Amino acid sequence: MRPSLLDPLFSPITSLAGIGPKVAVLIEKVVPADLGDRAARVGDLMFVLPNSVIDRRNRPGIALSAEGAIVTLEVRIDRHQPAPRGNRSVPYRVFAHDDTGEIALTFFHAHAAYLEKAMPEGEKVIVSGRMEWFNGRPSMVHPDHIALASEADKLPLVEPVYPLTAGLSGKVLRRAIGQSLERLPALPEWLDAELMRRQSFPDFTAALQRVHNPADPIDASPENAAWRRLAYDELLAGQVSLALVRAKVRKLHGRPLTGDGRIVNALRAALPYQLTGSQQTALEEIDADLAKPERMLRLLQGDVGSGKTVVALLAMARAVEAGGQAALMAPTEILARQHMATIAPLAERVGIKVAVLTGREKGRDRAQTLAGLESGEIDIVIGTHALFQETVAFRDLALAVIDEQHRFGVHQRLAMNAKGQAPDMLVMTATPIPRTLVLTAFGDMDVSRLTEKPAGRQPIRTVTLPLERIDELVGRVRDAVAEGQKIYWICPLVEESEEVKLMSAEDRFASLQPVFGNRIGIVHGRMKGADKDEAMRAFKAGETRVLIATTVIEVGVDVPDATIMVIEHAERFGLAQLHQLRGRVGRGSKPSSCVLLYKDPLGETAKRRLSVMRDTEDGFVIAEEDLKLRGEGELLGTRQSGTPGFQVARIEAHADLLEIARDDARLILARDPELVSPRGEALRLLLYVFGRDEAVRLLRAG
Ligand SMILES: Nc1ncnc2c1ncn2[C@@H]1O[C@H](COP(=O)(O)OP(=O)(O)OP(=O)(O)O)[C@@H](O)[C@H]1O
Fold first, then answer.
1. Geometric angle at alpha carbon 504, from 499 and 507, rounded to 5°
2. Which residues pair with 583 in a beta bridge?
3. In whole angstroms, what is the distance from residue 263 CA to residue 614 CA?
4. Bond preceding residue 601 cis, omega within 30 of 0
5. pLDDT tens-digit readout, 525-568
6. 668 vs 223: CA distance, rounded Å
7. Homologous superfamily of domain range 460-616
């Protein structure tokens, strides 16, 4: 049971002043925690850390302020010049001066009453914002801060800048974060005093305060002791939790799984292709693990399109051959059904019975599947997380395959499994993460890598095209359809509150339908499950040739004869996502291409991302570039800043802490395996603070 001390951090953010359900949805987008199905909590807000700071200590005076610089000015207000009635293009101007010169403070669509109150004529006022020159005269358009000189202490000197999303203002977010810090209870120290001294770590609360209320820009940087302290806490929580999971998982006895090869060989013979060398090697490694009496905990890592599914299938076939059952858990419903569609025909040819189980299976079908799993009549079940969350009883689950694609946080699921039966575990990931990250995200699992693509694949030709030239593109797509090709056309998710006008998937569908008639389909997240299935089926079968889609198709969708991928507003997507999306084509033997449609003007980071995409198809190279470009925070709706799987730690800045945390965790658990000493008790709190509840539950009296 979670100590009630922590309750304030676990209440929903809507319990904060000024946060209604709508704002809450926006805040959930910038919260770095992997929220999964849950709503954001007050405690998640503490870890929304600044991307950068604005230094407002620069007070050069009007005449000496450089154009474009952020400055703070103490001025006397001379005169208000309201905008003329009925002409909204002329701004409201406030003229003011200091000892060095004069300035015009400019406001569009201004609220006159507010401005008069904030800047009374004749008064001294402090304004802070970006200096501009207009018609040769100093001006400031919409100062960020305005305060009477007598209330100067209300102005932040160094202001943190947080990641934002359309519709969410920095002010609202800052207030919410401020409230979360106020609710933080006094917590006992969980770190070793000697380590804190050596690293100059402040205590947890002080560290959060310093990062959110920097007195100097350095206070809010990841290299600073305050941020490093928080990163260390997170890494330690991760390492302790992994160590706990591992200890429990390994304790549960496994059993050797071997077979006579009858089913596996028949399956291999039924495949329409030869396995690649690395598929072959991965299977040998898996077979060797399965044959051992200990439990298998293996990660199968392979870039998009490298052919992980068939490896999973053959591993599951081995488990079945050995007399057990197997389960495959997919990250999305579409993917679960797709796996079902590819696996079922092959499996049935060799006498394996397969069923699908997701939240959508209801009534008699569901009851039948559940009964089949319990009796052992069903050999392999494919589903979503519903598989493990519910009380699905197996006769004898021998192997669980978890298709993580590019999600992280697998040890929650491992922990869940540590309680029940003790199946061998194979985790599949398409994220080409560097070794250090494998260690932190997955612990010391054994790793198999698919390093080559199936034979006969051709490179994908990637081009970038400005949105204005969309007509040319439509012409080319029309030709491609006439030749019998299949085209994905991806549109970004659009929020209702979005100010910038973007084409949504539905708008794009409507605009292209006159061109393509009944050869065009659409699939997006808000459609009903059955409609999504139908759209995918029609595209797969070739009834539709152009599929307009949102990123619901990003993960793992496999239509091998699709050859063109159009990504609209490519500048809005992260590199990892672009790579995943592009990986939907180039999966067969025909040449494929990817068109990145972008809207000018492109920011520096976006430009860089698109050029990386043009230059390489190598997932590892892309992952590394991605890490470098992260944190620049110009993306919408995606958690961009930081290292995937972490809220606070940045692998570039904190890699040195990782090893220390790992050794620390080992030492702690060697001395106090159930975390019952005073420090152990404090560490339990740390685990909760970083969302490692599953790990605490594995402890005695957890
Ligand atoms: N050895 C092989 N030779 C030829 N084709 C193969 C081979 N292995 C797999 N394939 C085919 O390659 C395609 C991609 O395989 P699969 O869907 O398993 O990829 P994946 O690794 O899951 O990639 P992603 O992460 O992009 O979903 C499938 O159409 C599959 O049938």
1. 115
2. none
3. 43
4. yes
5. 778 888 888 998 999 999 999 999 987 666 667 888 999 999 99
6. 26
7. P-loop containing nucleotide triphosphate hydrolases (3.40.50.300)
560 Cβ closer than 6 Å to some ligand 1 atom: yes
What is the Å distance from ligand 1's center to 342 Cα?
11
Q: Are residues 405 and 429 in contact, defined by beta-carbon separation less than 8 angstroms?
A: yes
- Cβ of residue 338 lying under 6 Å from some atom of ligand 1: no
Q: Helices 262-270 and 308-321 sit at what angle, rounded to 10 degrees?
A: 150
Residue showing tokens 């139908």:
534
Same fold yes or no, 57-155 and 262-450? no
CB count within 10 Å of CB 86 equals: 6
What is the Å distance from ligand 1's center to 170 Cα? Answer: 44
Answer whether 307 contacts ligand 1 (Cβ < 6 A). yes
- CA-proximal residue: ligand 1, atom 7 (nearest): 454
Instruction: Tell me the per-residue pLDDT of 135-181, one tens digit each, with 9 for 90 and over.
Output: 888 999 999 999 999 988 888 889 998 988 878 888 899 999 999 99
Radius of gyration of the chain (CA): 29
Is any atom of ligand 1 closer than 6 Å to the C-beta of 341?
no
CA of 604 to the centre of ligand 1 (A): 34
- Ligand 1 atom with minimal separation from the 312 CA: 18
Centre of ligand 1 from the C-alpha of residue 306, in Å: 5
Strands 137-141 and 132-134, how do they pair? Answer: antiparallel
CB-ligand 1 contact for 406 (6 Å cutoff): no
**Probe target for ligand 1 pocket from 316, 429, 587, with the most ligand atoms within 8 Å of CB:** 587
Look at ligand 1, atom 16, and give the residue with the nearest C-alpha: 307
Atom of ligand 1 nearest to the CA of 556: 27
Q: How is residue 572 annotated by DSSP? A: G
Per DSSP bridges, beta strands 562-568 and 592-598 are parallel
Query: Separation of 426 CA from ligand 1 center, angstroms?
Result: 17
For the Cβ of 587 lying below 6 angstroms from any atom of ligand 1, the answer is yes
Q: List beta partners, residue 96.
A: 77, 103
* Contact status, residue 426 vs residue 297, Cβ threshold 8 Å: no
- How far apart (Å, rounded) are the C-alpha atoms in residues 140 and 128? 9
- As its CATH architecture, domain 262-450 has 3-Layer(aba) Sandwich (3.40)
Cα distances from 210 to residues 42, 49, 175, 186, in angstroms, run 18, 11, 16, 16
Q: Assess contact for 687 and 679: CB atoms under 8 A.
A: no
Closest residue CA from atom 11 of ligand 1? 307
If you measure from the C-alpha of residue 450 to the centroid of ligand 1, how many angstroms do you get, rounded to a whole number? 11
Q: Between these two residues, 292 and 249, which has the higher pLDDT value?
A: 292
- pLDDT of res. 638: 34
CA angle 201, 45, 178 (to 5 degrees): 80
Q: SS3 for 418?
A: helix
Q: What is the pLDDT of residues 92-104, one digit of tens each?
A: 999 999 999 999 9
Closest CA to 303 of 276, 327, 328, 285: 276
Closest atom of ligand 1 to CA, residue 342 = 31
Residue the block writes with tokens 């995937």: 644
Domain extent listing, the chain: 4-53+164-221, 57-155, 262-450, 460-616
CATH topology of domain 57-155: OB fold (Dihydrolipoamide Acetyltransferase, E2P) (2.40.50)
- This complex has an ipTM of 0.97
Ligand 1 touching residue 680 (CB < 6 A): no
CB 523 within 8 A of CB 305: no
Residue 370 CB coordination number (10 Å): 19
Residue nearest ligand 1's atom 9 by CA: 307
